[in-house]
Amino acid sequence: MTIRSAARWLITAFLLTAPMAAQGYFEDTIQHVGGALSAGLGGGEFGSIYQTMMESFIGLVSLVGIVMIVRAGLVLTVSQDEGQFEKTKKTIMAVSAALILINLAPRVAEAYLAYKGGGPDIITTELKGLLSFFETLAAIAAVIFIIVSGIRAVISYGGEDGLAHLKRTIFGVGAGVLLIATKLLIVDAVVIERTPGKILSIISTFVKVLLGFGAFVATIVLIWAGLLMIVNLGKDEQYTRAKNLVVRVAIGLIVILISLALVQFLIS
């Protein structure tokens, strides 16, 4: 399936809305000329009947699209053609886009019709669901990439390529997951709740954990430096080095405690 085919599906989805829009715009004229239709398939309106007829094909077309994707995968598996991968990739992308458009068509039709309310809310809900769908796929792909890279590193034990590839994969996947999580926080703060409270809470928690860990490490180093001072009594050089370490760690610990107090004050 090519981009032209996907465009045909988009035009078909648009045509789905035309009769229903006509029903909404010219409802008074239709009722005056022809009277109300009898209740039956899809309700008593021409647009509703047309919508029901078109939506009845969604399951069949979705099944055909899934079969096309499976067929493309099987052809890629058994084919020896070097250009088959690009053909399969284009087919899967085009069919996936068509399936998404076809299944979104009824909801887009409801939002598009002028005589129905809540159109923006419908579009917003569908966009959130579509983003969640792609986020789930991204999470699954991230796990698969990490597993494959780990297996590759184990198989190529002793070589640098496998370990380097594993490091690059973990770094890339981690950056991608971080971007997705950041996007979720921004969307939640700007679109859904429209308040930065959750972002500030997460930042505050992260900073507190980071500063708390720093304070823990500084305390351990301070205890170790104190022990060195006790052990090295009478040894001027070692004693002086331990004393300087105690002073530096004490200053760092004070700065960490002040930072914690400032963070708590700013957030609250």
UniProtKB/TrEMBL annotation:
Signal peptide: 1-24
Membrane listed as a keyword: yes
Transmembrane segments: 57-79, 91-109, 129-148, 169-192, 212-233, 245-267
InterPro entries reported for this sequence: T4SS_pilin
Keyword terms of this UniProt record: Membrane, Signal, Transmembrane, Transmembrane helix
Pfam families reported for this sequence: T4SS_pilin
Keyword Oxidoreductase set for record: no
Protein name listed in UniProt: Yip1 domain-containing protein
Lineage, highest ranks first: Bacteria, Candidatus Peregrinibacteriota, Candidatus Peribacteria, Candidatus Peribacterales, Candidatus Peribacteraceae
